[in-house]
Amino acid sequence: MLIKTGVPTVDDLKKVYPPEERMQQGPVAIIECFQKIPCNPCTEACKQGAILPMADINDVPEMDFSKCNGCGVCISRCPGLAIFVVDRSYSPTEAIVRIPYEFVPVPEVGQKVVCLNRAGEEVGTFEVKKVVSGGKKNMTYTVWIAVPQELCMEVRNIRLGGVAHGE
Ligand code: SF4
Ligand code: SF4
């Protein structure tokens, strides 16, 4: 139950996942924003019209996945850090997960970082492939991490320093 735990359930996530066919085609945004809150910068951030206009500012965002080109602009524009881009076409064994990141220091390309799931549990240590600034006035960076394909819908945060258990 999301409200109690802060962690979305499988059913919550199923509602926002792109179709598997779209996932295989390349990078696509996944919006894990489940609570009705007065917020809508995501809808204005997407110039492709992939994040649908809201009838009410308290609505949860809805996607038209066919319009999303995976540009990632929306990631750093979401104050809730609820938007991710996943690219399953990266390689047969690895996918790229792009996550918003607001801590310092900002990780560097090539750095191995501890990856966490939505519950904050360590799921492995993987390499940063790219780091993108949100812009001069936006302190949210986007960090690209190459993770095993089977973890691309699990990894949703990182922690710098230290090594995951079992590594
Ligand atoms: S990744 Fe780009 S095209 Fe897709 S929803 Fe975000 S801003 Fe729109
Ligand atoms: S900007 Fe982020 S927190 Fe706000 S409605 Fe959009 S996805 Fe949710």
TrEMBL record:
Q: Which organism is it from?
A: Formimonas warabiya
Q: Where is the signal peptide?
A: none
What are the UniProt keywords, alphabetically? Iron, Iron-sulfur, Metal-binding
Question: What is the protein name for this chain?
Answer: 4Fe-4S ferredoxin
Q: Which Pfam families match?
A: Fer4_7 (PF12838)
**4Fe-4S ferredoxin-type domain boundaries:** 59-88
Give GO MF terms, alphabetically: iron-sulfur cluster binding; metal ion binding
Does the keyword Zinc belong to this entry?
Answer: no
